[in-house]
């Protein structure tokens, strides 16, 4: 299962120090704690107050575990606050957790009626309803296209803006309904629900998830010990491309022309790929958890200084 592959990817020593950057309800953290010795340590981050409550309960049960109410863009600050140094492994499981989706009051699901919220941390920031009041047609079309790969972005945005103007957009059920009727009739049936990509894109927009990924992945690569591993599970192509490109920049930082046989720019790689081609959930896991159908796992490893120097000499010829 992908959970096991995820834990296998970041685990290296029972005495090691690890970070779960997306605690959720603690499935990955609990699986990792089972592998740690009494000397091992696990730090978890989450910005959802409900996840923090679950984490605090686990913290009381296991002294090897610490939870921080923080988004993963604040990874470096969290490590400093906890007086942690470099670590052996770091994992990210992006997207929303099942409890978040299943709670209609959070506004993540088009299958249940709820408020237009979609905040990961519902104690901070602006809900979707407020953000929609202050956006332009151009920005909203770009959000749906960039974060949802939505083919009918302009039609859906037109319907959203019309509903806002007519004061008829008040809940997730209203949003689901207008998405369904905004797309052509032939696109309404036979595949994913017409609201799927729009809800995904709006959630990413509300929570600033792409900027979070940029900052968090860079901080994670810097926080690894030599030989330490980074594992990231993503759920849509935009996230996956962003992660791939961030790690690839650390694997191949050279800016020399491809024709040069050796690197002269002086930039050294800091990471190597362990799993560049994404690992996907198998049929058994998809059957048990249909939401895992789109999950993709990538894994990379921090290079030692000697390895970085050795690879840098050939970087120009590896474009």
Write out key terms for the chains shown.
319 residues; alpha/beta; Rossmann fold; DNA polymerase, domain 1; 2 domains; seven-stranded mixed beta sheet; 14 helices; 7 strands; 44% helix; 16% strand
Would you kindly provide a written description of the structure presented here, covering whatever features stand out?
This protein is of the alpha/beta class. It folds into two domains: 2-98 and 209-255 and 270-303, Rossmann fold, CATH 3.40.50; 104-207, DNA polymerase, domain 1 (Orthogonal Bundle), CATH 1.10.150. It has 14 helices and seven strands. It has helices at 2-10, 27-33, 49-61, 75-81, 98-102, 128-133, 137-148, 153-165, 172-182, 196-207, 209-223, 237-251, 283-288, 305-312; strands at 17-20, 41-46, 65-69, 87-93, 224-234, 271-280, 296-302. Strands 3-2-1-4-5-7-6 form a seven-stranded mixed β-sheet, with helices on both faces. Helix 7 packs across helix 8 (153-165), helix 7 crosses helix 10 (196-207) and helix 11 packs parallel to helix 12. The two termini are 34 Å apart. The model has no long low-confidence stretch (mean pLDDT 90).
Quick gist of this model?
The protein is an alpha/beta fold and 319 residues long. It contains 14 helices and 7 strands.
Q: Helical amount among residues, as a percent range? A: 40-55%
What is the H/E order? HEHEHEHEHHHHHHHEHEHEH
Q: Total number of helical segments?
A: 14
Q: Please tell me the CATH architecture of the largest domain by its name.
A: 3-Layer(aba) Sandwich
Topology, number of strands: 7
Oligomer: single chain
Give the N-to-C terminal Cα separation.
34 Å
